[in-house]
Amino acid sequence: MRAITIPQSGGPEVLTWAEVPEPEPAAGEVLVEIAATAVNRADLLQRQGFYDPPPGSSPYPGLECAGRIVALGPGVAGWAVGDEVCALLTGGGYAERVAVPAGQLLPRPAGLSATEAAALPEVVCTVWSNVFMVAHLRPGETVLVHGGASGIGTMAIQLAKAVGARVAVTAGSAAKLARCAELGADVLIDYREQDFVEAVREATGGAGADVILDIMGAKYLPRNVAALAVNGRLVIIGMQGGVKGELDLGVLLRKRAAVAATNLRGRPLEEKAAIVAAVREHVWPLLESGVVKPVVDRVLPIAEAAEAHRAVEESGHVGKVVLRVG
């Protein structure tokens, strides 16, 4: 089969569509023929040499895919050859086929194409596990989503609104903020011109955000804590702004607030399976009813993976950049 390989670390130009060995599904796994995959910032970090795949996983980039089951490994129940699925991966989505643990499979939502479904697993599992399973966002609370126009941001807006929360977002252009508003965002903050701490306080009558979903890390840490409400919860899922920051424990104590940092790719199989099961129970009905929708900025052929990476690096997109494989 063929896959996007990374012969050496570097810019998008190092991505190479090449012949590679066919994967074999192990016990508890299925083999998926991939129709589409999507680009995540973790793929960019892997290409640059900063984020190696977990031991034993596929060496090829791609943390999610949609396609069709073509083979079952020993011990798999509840799935059949021919099922249309999408999947959360530890790697290998930029390929013609991938072996997937059965616990990380989801049925393709009714009414969605493979390219739309490919944009879902990573962002939906990330948002649900962090905003709802870690931070326990509740109806009536305010959540601040940094990078509201990103794949994760566009999904977080929709899911938070679906449960009755108020959503504030940051983004870097009027056009991106307008798109966030279309998805349901209530408070729009241009981080180039506004202090998000003051903007959130003003929007909440001085209370602050009950939950903050942060992709920036160190750069935003002190201001995120300042923006939290009493009993607020800050969840850090990215390090685009660095890895080492200063945390004022006095402020955290006075607010009785919490800071959590999580990732998804390196979790044990049973934890990923639990997240996927929760997503299937709580989010899939919202997708199939049209309350929540995947946001796809553009679809490119897999041979143009380098161009897709450039688009994500330039942050000119809204939602997901999808690669068509089949």
UniProtKB/TrEMBL annotation:
It comes from the Bacteria. It holds the Pfam family ADH_N. Keywords: NADP, Oxidoreductase. Residues 10-323 form the Enoyl reductase (ER) domain. The keyword Ubl conjugation does not apply. InterPro entries: ADH-like_C, ADH-like_N, ER, GroES-like_sf, NAD(P)-bd_dom_sf, Quinone_OxRdtase_PIG3. PANTHER family: OS02G0805600 PROTEIN, QUINONE OXIDOREDUCTASE PIG3-RELATED. NCBIfam families: quinone_pig3. This is NAD(P)H-quinone oxidoreductase. It comes from Kitasatospora paranensis.
